[in-house]
Amino acid sequence: MQNLIIVRPSYDFALEFVSYWLSQTIDNASKKFVVYDLEGEHAYPESIHNILEERKPVLTLMGGHGNPEIYSGTDKEYVIWTDPEPNPNINKVKGMVNFLLSCSTGAKLGPDIASQENTFFVGYLTDFIFAGFEPGDEYSYYFGKANIDIANALINGKTVAQAVDAGIKAFDEGINYWNKSESAIAPMINSYLLQNKESLVAYPGGPVQTPVLSETKLPLAPIILAAAVAGLSLLMLK
Amino acid sequence: MVSQEEKTLVYDRYNQWVKSLSPQEQNLPFIHILGKSMTPLEALNEILQGSAIGNSLTRAELLKLGYLRGTL
Prior knowledge:
The complex is a heterodimer of chains A (about 240) and B (about 70). With about 240 residues, chain A is of the alpha/beta class.
C-alpha cells in the first residue's frame, strides 16, 4: 500500500477542533493507505519532514495554523514555507497531493507547492473561521464535515477539483441547515461557512470561485458583490 | 481595508446577536480564527477595535450581506 500522512497539532483550542476533524478520516484512510498519524506533540517539523522524506506519502492531510507563505505545526514551528522566507522548502511535498487545513495558505504557498511537477494543493485562500463550544458540537459540525469530506474525497482517489466540490457541498448543507434555524447564533455561523466556502481553492486549476471583497465603500459593495454571485441567487442567507 | 461605515454596520449586527445570548454563552470561547479562540464578547471588541481579526470577521459578514442584497 502507498503511504499517507496526517498532521494534527492540537496545542490550542482552535486546533483541538481541527485535530478532531482529521481524526475522523483515519479509519477510511487506513483501508487504502499505510497511515502516519502525527498528532499533538508528534506534529513537530522534524518528525513531519522525516516521514515526508523517508516514506514519500502520496497524500498529505495537514492541519495547523498558516499564513500566505507558511504552514506551521505544533507550537507554530514552520513546517512548509515559501518566499519571502529564506530557503523555501516546498520541495518536501513535491509529487504529493496536499490538503492544508489552515488559514490563508492557498494565497501563495499553495500555488507555489502546486507549481512543482505532479504536485497538487487544496486549501483556503483567506482566514479559516469557524464556531463551536467544543469539538463535535452542533455549531462546529458543518465546518468539520466540509473538511472531512474534502479529505475523504482525496483518500478515495478523487481529483482536487472534486474534493473542493465535496467541501462546497458540505458548506452549502451547513448554510441551508443554519438558515432554517431560529438560533441567534445562526447568522454568524452562516457568515463563517460562506467565507470558508468562497475561500476554498485547488491548484493546479486556480480558484474555484473568486469572492469579491474589494476596498469598495459600502454603498457600492452590494452591487459588486451581487454581480459576483450571479447564479447563486437562490441562496438566501440570514 | 474596512471602512468605518462597514465596521459600524457589522458591529451593530454582532452586538444584537451577543445581547441575545445568555451571560454564560457570552463568555465561552466560541469563535476561532488565526489561532485565537474568542468569546462572543471578545469578538465584538475585536470588531470595534478594527483589529486584523475583527476585520476578518467584518469581511465575512459583509460577504454574506452582499449575498443577501444580491437576492433582493
